[in-house]
Amino acid sequence: MNRIVVGPFNRVEGDLEVTLDVADGRVAAARVNSPLFRGFEQILVGKDPRDALVFVPRICGICSVSQSAAAAAALRAAMGLAVPDNGRHAANLVLATENLADHFTHFYLFFMPDFARDAYAGRRWFEAARARFKAVEGSATADALPARAAFMHTLGLLAGKWPHTLSLQPGGSARAVSAAEKIRLYALLREFRGWLERRLFGDSLEAIAALDSMAALEAWAAARPPGASDFRLFLEIAADLKLRRAGRATDVYLSYGAYGDADDALFARGVWRPGSATTALDAGAIVEDVSHAWLRDEAPRHPLQGHTWPDADKAGAYSWCKAPRLGGEVVECGALARQLVDGQPLLRELVTGEGGSVFARVLGRLLEFARVLPAMETWVRAIEPGAPFCAQGELPDDAQGVGLVEAARGALGHWLTVRHGRIVGYQIIAPTTWNFSPRDAAGTPGALEQALVGLPMAEDGSVPALVQHVVRSFDPCMVCTVH
Amino acid sequence: MNLIWLQSGGCGGCTMSLLCSDARDLLGLLRDAGINILWHPSLSEQTGPEALALLEACANGEIPLDLLCVEGAMLRGPAGSGRFHVLAGSGKPMIHWVEALAARARHTLAIGSCAAWGGISAGGTNPTEACGLQYEGETRGGLLGAGYRGSAGLPVINVAGCPTHPGWVVDTLLALALGEFGADALDALARPRFYADQLVHHGCSRNEFYEFKASAEKPSDLGCMMEHLGCKGTQAHADCNLRPWNGSGSCTSGGYACISCTEPGFETPGHPFAQTPKVAGIPIGLPSDMPKAWFVALAALSKSATPRRVRENATADHPQITPAIRRTGLK
Ligand code: SF4
Ligand code: SF4
User: Fold this and answer.
1) Which residues line ligand 1 (CB under 6 A)?
2) Which residues bind [3Fe-4S] cluster (chain B) (predicted)?
């Protein structure tokens, strides 16, 4: 048995270290360490509850709006507020913009550059991949960054700035949209759609969203050359490297449901596993286990009873990340989970047949561009200038509130307890906390830890690019993980 | 010029903000100015041992290091060990790497308020003993010490903001690359003066409301947010309302108060952020260059003269009364 420590893992958000036990040329066990701890859950204690809206977005600079949305939802629950329609549309637009921008950043800056590495020289697609995706120098960087920045102008209008807006409030949005601004927002979305249709897909978003089976996807790919678009090139690479066979975790998928409340949400809430229907989520069955984290505590706790007490010297611990479990199970969250729970047929067929994989996770994200951007266009059209954007209310001195939202990377929950007008408990479970959790008290590894097991090492014994693909397929956000 | 970018006790938001730069081709622009990104954790190809080898080579002087950009607070805890952030794969605390690289760098830049002062990471009880590179809140010192100078002679350049504006970073880097950035380009807190010699209040779209003390009372109101909603735009040093964020935005145009995120200690205002502390009904944090008695007298006068349009629009989320059309006879 040989032990290899991999890190710093760059082109992920934040700092990540992975320890691999290697036997017979394959990964026998993996341990995932998030080596940065800041302690937001302590920083928040004692604050005025509304101050959470200032602090929590600063947990993460890449999914700052989703943290704001979760805090606003938790405060809203504590205040018992109902958001006016305009406020809902604005908040959906703000969150969807960030989520799509994250998918965009992930594909162009974090994930694809690995295929431009010299290790792949000689592959039939290599020269194309290198010209387009080489880190810093590839044509995609020069091309995609301005498109992303232009798309983010929607947040200049709707949220003042990104990251770290305060426009998302418990009652909706503090930024009303005028008739002229509504048109500008629409134009910005159409501009981004144009870029996606030209560069990313080489086809209309509606045509991509309509891909409802593996046969349909294969026929779509067969009808165009590999150089036709970035998506087509990705399909080519994925087929050649068999990315459908790499990186399977537990195949239990969790989504809190996205863009709207339970009934009228764009994407459904629930838990899905291959071969069965979506089941309802029991949020009361969520606990966090700290047996392998540098945190002091005995039993696994529900987040409303949770604590975060650092203990850097704890024996047997190897990460600052807690281990969330749902009814005792390791679950995976993210765009793939969101789409599986919602019933997207192509992904359901793929995962039912072969299980989750690097390919399925990336495909889940790409399909979201095609499903979410058209919805954003309808939300903009539904805004009624002149009608209210923000409900007002009082926060009780003693209250609890839970905010469950979907960040780009999946299920994000905030659990808030207020006593005498001050925060006495604030617990956060971020998507990557689920996906990159360490072992629990029963010794069960987290989702990534399981997904790495069995991967072959390179012939010279070094860590192959495949390990990088598996890790990055989750689009981890390490600053969120341990907050 | 070789550039290394490190991230420690922060959120990565200053990098994400930088990627919102409205330059047509941000990385091409930097390359064109002669800035060579040796390593950046979000952008570079090198990972694991290759990345560590690069840092090592800069730390021991084999590769010259011109620009050291540090994002995020320096986490000194627990008990001074730095173990709240060990650089992955290296077994060593990030504060070790920052000290070693800063000792070689021609210029060291604190990117954002965490790296400058400790920032939000130093909020509350500061559980991780977070501080900035050369400041701890308003006190000089921090990780590197008050006497630290880059080998070119400047103290740590505090490109403060939470997050920092992409333009503030790009302009500072370009000015350094062009050799047009000296000690006189820094303000008393070592922030670049090109943005820190302004106030957020300058150019705020709510200035007309401010003049008449026509105030917003609740989120989404259009009025000035100084009197009730905690706005510190009259004291915060930054050009946010002159240099837009994300195309056209700013905090105040986005419907919420400036929380003075470029200032040391902004994370501990001593009152709820969205509420203006007052004594006898008068805000305690008045504009920094205005005597209190004058402010009170002028406010009373201007309130009595507030046009109905301004007064009514201040507490609504869209204009209730539009400016009158008058035939003035002027051509
Ligand atoms: S809202 Fe703030 S920045 Fe704008 S005018 Fe009022 S005090 Fe000045
Ligand atoms: S307006 Fe104030 S809080 Fe907002 S970014 Fe500028 S300085 Fe920071």
Assistant:
1) B 200-201, 204, 206-207, 210, 224-226, 231, 233-234, 252, 258
2) 240, 258, 261
How many other C-beta atoms can be found within 10 angstroms of the C-beta atom of residue B298? 13
A152 neighbourhood in chain B, CB within 8 Å: 20, 246-247
Give a three-class secondary structure readout of chain B: CEEEEEECECCCHHHHHHCCCCCCCHHHHHHHCCCEEEECCCCCCCCHHHHHHHHHHHHCCCCCCCEEEEECEEECCCCCCCCCEECCCCCCEHHHHHHHHHCCCCEEEEECHHHHHCHHHHCCCCCCCEECCCEECCEECCCCCCCCCCCCCCCCEEECCCCCCHHHHHHHHHHHHCCCCCHHHECCCCCEHHHHCCECCCCCCCHHHHHCCCECCCCCCCCECCCCCCCCCCCCECCCCCCCECCCECCCCCCCCCCCCCCCCCCCCCCCCCCCCEECCEECCCCCCCCHHHHHHHHHHHHHCCCHHHHHHHCCCCCCCCCCCCCCCCC
Q: Which of A113, A159, A166 sits opposite B45 (nearest CB)?
A: A113
- Residues in B closer than 8 angstroms to A472, CB to CB, are none
Nearest ligand by distance to the CA of B225:
1
The ipTM estimated for the assembled molecules is: 0.96
Residue among B205, B207, B211, B239 to mutate when testing ligand 1 (max atoms within 8 A of CB): B207
Pocket of ligand 2 (CB under 6 A): B 161, 200, 236, 238, 240, 250-251, 258-262
**Residues on chain A touching B88 (C-beta within 8 angstroms):** 7-9, 15-17, 33, 35
Spatial separation of the C-alpha atoms in residues B30 and B48, rounded to whole Å: 25
- Between chains, do B123 and A5 touch, taking CB under 8 Å as contact? no
| Distance in Å, alpha carbon of A132 to nearest chain B alpha carbon | 14
Domains of chain B listed by start with CATH number: 2-197 (3.40.50.700), 198-318 (4.10.480.10)
Is A14 in Cβ contact with B7 (below 8 Å)? yes
- List all residues of chain A from 446 to 475 with a beta carbon under 8 Å from chain B: 463, 468
- Single pTM value for the model: 0.97
Q: What residue's CA is closest to ligand 1, atom 8? A: B201
Q: What is the pLDDT along chain A (483 residues), one digit of tens a residue?
A: 899 999 898 898 889 999 999 999 999 999 999 999 999 999 999 999 999 999 999 999 999 999 999 999 999 999 999 999 999 999 999 999 999 999 999 999 999 999 999 999 999 999 999 999 999 999 999 999 999 999 999 999 999 999 999 999 999 999 999 999 999 999 999 999 999 999 999 999 999 999 999 999 999 999 999 999 999 999 999 999 999 999 999 999 999 999 998 678 999 999 999 999 999 999 999 999 999 999 998 899 999 999 999 999 999 999 999 999 999 999 999 999 999 999 999 999 999 999 999 999 999 999 999 999 999 999 999 999 999 999 999 999 999 999 999 999 999 999 999 999 999 999 999 999 999 999 999 999 999 999 999 999 998 888 999 999 999 999 999 999 999
Nearest CB to B28 within list A116, A142, A160:
A142
CB of A383 closer than 8 Å to CB of A89: yes
Residues of A in contact with B21 (CB under 8 A): 145, 149
